[in-house]
Write a structure and sequence with these properties.
alpha/beta; eight-stranded mixed β-sheet; seven-stranded parallel β-sheet; about 25% helix; about 20% strand; binds iron/sulfur cluster
Length: about 375
C-alpha cells in the first residue's frame, strides 16, 4: 500500500473516498476526494486534496501541501484512506491493479512469526467500514481476485464472514485468496461457515516446516497441531488449499522433506508456493538469524520443486527473481509481488526477463542481491 504524510484540516476520523478530478459529485453513494492542485472546493465531494501550502477557509475536510509525487501517480477512480494523523494510504490503484484488490481485516495476530513483514499490533479503529466501502465502490470494476490478509484475518470471525459473503454478492466469480496461519480453522464449524460464505476461497496457509520443532521456532507459537487439523478440516470441506513456505535459515535444509511430507500427507493440496522473504518488520529485525542466500538453497529448492512437479502437484516459486534461481526452475517462477511493491536495480534494464520478473520488494530494507541480467537475444532465431 503506497502511503504519504500530509497536512490536514477538519479530519477527525478516517475518510475513505474515490479520487476524482470532476468538479461535481452527484453520486451520493460514493464518497469522493476531489483532487485539485490549486485547492478550490466544489459541490458534492467529501474531501479536497491539494498541493497548496495552506487550506482555503472551509468547514469541510482538506488534505493540503501534498507531495507532487502523489499528484503524479494518483488517477481518477483510485481509492484512498486519510486518517487523522495525516497519512494518506492508497488502497486501490486503478492503473496498477485493475483486476484485484486487498482487504486488510486486522493488525492483530495469534502467531508471532520470526520473518513477519508486518508485525502484529493493536487495531486503533475497526477496519470494517473501510473494507465495506472498498467492496462497494469497486463493484462495477472488472475484479478477478480479492486478497484477504492481516494480521491474522480469522481472528475477526464476524467481520471476516460478513466480508467474504459480501465479496460473493458483489463479485460472484472473483477468486478470494485468504492468507491465514490456520490456527482458528482447526475449529471445524468455523472452517465450514467460511467455506459456505463464499465458494471461491483459496485458503493460503503458512506452512513453514514439516516438523513441530522448526515450526514452533519460526512461528514463535505452538500452533503446529492446530494447523494440521485445519488442513484436514479444509480437505473434508473440499476447499482449495495453498501451502506457503517462506525459505529461511531454519527450514532451507529440509525443503525436500517438507515437499515429501506434503505429498504423502496432503496429496489434495491445490498449490504449494516456496517463497522469498520480504525483508521488513520482524524479518529485518531478525535478518542475521533467518536470512539465507538463494545460492545456498538453490539445489535443495530445485529438488523440492521437481519432487512435487513429478508427482503432478501444482508448485510455484514466489518472490524470487529469475536470475537468483537455477534455470531449471524458471517455469515455476511467478511474478508474485504486488505491482506497487516491485522494484528493479539499474542492471535489470538489460535483462530479457524484466517484463515477467517480480524484481525485488521496494519494502525490502536490504539490497545486496547479486542480480545478473539475463541476456537472451530477441534476434537469436535470425542469427541461427
Ligand atoms: S536482473 Fe532484474 S529483471 Fe532480470 S531476473 Fe534479475 S531481478 Fe529480474
Amino acid at each position: 500500500m503506497t502511503t504519504c504524510k500530509t497536512k490536514i484540516h477538519n479530519i477527525f476520523k478516517p475518510i475513505v473516498a474515490r479520487i476524482t478530478s470532476s468538479k461535481y459529485n452527484l453520486n451520493f453513494i460514493t464518497d469522493t476526494a476531489y483532487i485539485r492542485e490549486d485547492g478550490q472546493f466544489t459541490f458534492g465531494h467529501s474531501i479536497l486534496l491539494t498541493s497548496k501550502t495552506s487550506p482555503q477557509k472551509t468547514s469541510k475536510p482538506v488534505a493540503y501541501d501534498i507531495d507532487n509525487d502523489f499528484f503524479k501517480n494518483a488517477s481518477d477512480g483510485d481509492i484512498i484512506q486519510i486518517t487523522p494523523d495525516g497519512i494518506i494510504s492508497v488502497l486501490w490503484e486503478k492503473r496498477l491493479n485493475p483486476h484485484d484488490f486487498t482487504l486488510f481485516i486486522t493488525h492483530q495476530c495469534n502467531a508471532n512469526c520470526i520473518m513477519c513483514p508486518q508485525p502484529p499490533k493493536k487495531d486503533e479503529y475497526s477496519l470494517m467500514d473501510t473494507n465495506k466501502k472498498i467492496l462497494k465502490y469497486l463493484s462495477k470494476e472488472p475484479i478477478k481476485m480479492i486478497g484477504i490478509t492481516g494480521g491474522e484475518p480469522t481472528l475477526k470471525k464476524n467481520d471476516l464472514l460478513e466480508l467474504t459473503s459480501l465479496a460473493y454478492k458483489y463479485y460472484p466469480s472473483a477468486d478470494i485468496n485468504l492468507l491465514t496461519n490456520g490456527k482458528k480453522l482447526s475449529d471445524f464449524n468455523y472452517a465450514k461457515e467460511l467455506a459456505l460464505s463464499n465458494p471461491n476461497i483459496t485458503f493460503c496457509v503458512s506452512f513453514p516446516s514439516d516438523n513441530m520443532d522448526d515450526s514452533n521456532e519460526i512461528m514463535r507459537t505452538h500452533i503446529y497441531v492446530d494447523v494440521l487439523k485445519a488442513i484436514q478440516n479444509l480437505a473434508i470441506l473440499r476447499q482449495k488449499i495453498e501451502l506457503r513456505i517462506v525459505i529461511l535459515k531454519q527450514n532451507y535444509k529440509r525443503l525436500l522433506e517438507i515437499a515429501q511430507f506434503i505429498y504423502r500427507n496432503f496429496p489434495f493440496i491445490y498449490h504449494i508456493a516456496f517463497m522469498g522473504m520480504e525483508v521488513t518488520g520482524y524479518a529485518f529485525d531478525n535478518i542475521d538469524d533467518i536470512n539465507i542466500e538463494p545460492s545456498l538453497y538453490n539445489d535443495r529448492l530445485l529438488s523440492a520443486v521437481q519432487f512435487l512437479h513429478q508427482r503432478d502437484m501444482h508448485v510455484s516459486v514466489y518472490n524470487i527473481p529469475f536470475c537468483l534461481v537455477d534455470k531449471r526452475m524458471w517455469k515455476f517462477v511467478k511474478n508474485s509481488i504486488s505491482k506497487w511493491k516491485q522494484s528493479y536495480n539499474l542492471e535489470c534494464n538489460l535483462c530479457s526477463k524484466k517484463s515477467i520478473c517480480s524484481g525485488i520488494f521496494t519494502t525490502t530494507k536490504i539490497n545486496n542481491f547479486k542480480l545478473q541480467p539475463i541476456l537472451e537475444s530477441r534476434f537469436m532465431f535470425i542469427i541461427l
